Amino acid sequence: MERDGYRVCIVGATGVVGREMISVLQERDFPVKDLKLLASERTAGTTLAFKGENLKVQVLQEDSFKGMDIGLFSAGGAVSQKYAPIASEEGCVVIDNTSAFRMDPEVPLVVPEVNPHAIADYNHKGIIANPNCSTIQMVVVLKPIHDVATIRRVVVSTYQSVSGTGKEAIRELEKQTLAIFNHQEVKSEVYPHRIAFNCLPHIDVFSENGYTKEEIKMINETKKIMEDESIGITATTVRVPVFYGHSESVNIETTKKITPDEVRDILSRAPGVIVVDDPKKNEYPLAVYAAGKDETFVGRIREDKSIEKGINMWIVSDNIRKGAALNAVQIAEVLLKHYW
Predict the structure, then answer these.
(1) What's the whole-model pTM score?
(2) Which end of the chain is least crowded, N or C, by CB within 10 Å?
(3) How does pLDDT run across 224-242, given as a tens digit for each residue?
(4) Domain 6-131+324-339 belongs in CATH node 3.40.50.720
């Protein structure tokens, strides 16, 4: 039975995602009895607002989780690996936004519109993983189609905003843009090359097989969330000079023939999805319109004429909201409603 309120902590509260988590908790009126904000010594002491109160950010320590019910983690994989087990031992259920536990066979990887049952199925042992931002927006669109026509293969190319890297990357795009306009030297510190007015086919580190870790995440996480290892998936992930909102060109091959109109009908009824698809009126999903929105937008739905059962789509979502903070809070809502 749901209680009057829950003691929630946010690890990485001063980061881009951490700040958005605070906003989402407030906007959705999550039943927070007490909110504790945690970060490194570097940003501890910062004051952040929540429901009319100014809360001081505390230094993350091993004893930070005593009495906490839910921990929203977004401070990097190394921090999660160290502190998530400590939190869970204290009885604090961790919803982790990093890749630290996503492929752990004992940890559920959850998108509430797709596989909320995984929270119970895995007997989560105190840690629930939040998927990669680019994976989340793709699977909320693919799963309803998969349920009807069974997807055999996915080819995805992403166009990912700099906010996915963090505050420093946002500042770097700002500084480089101003430097170019003012004919000044352009410095690249966050990325290996200039991001302003450029596209980098390089997100995370390269593996020996030529894929980046971001691409491998999309492949492995999609299969786990969709609960179907038979789906063939290949990905190319690209960083683009956009501040907020990831875009994806997705091509699918299905087992059962399905028309673009049928896809539009399926997705118009899918939770968390909005179809924006009228090319004659120049209406299709755009990152600038998706920014700040909860939903995932899909358009440019059309038949792939190169294969018998193929569909092309364009998928856009706010990577900081649905791709991170919102999805984490939605997981907490499912947890409270069904499994607490």
Answers:
(1) 0.95
(2) N
(3) 999 999 999 999 999 999 9
(4) yes
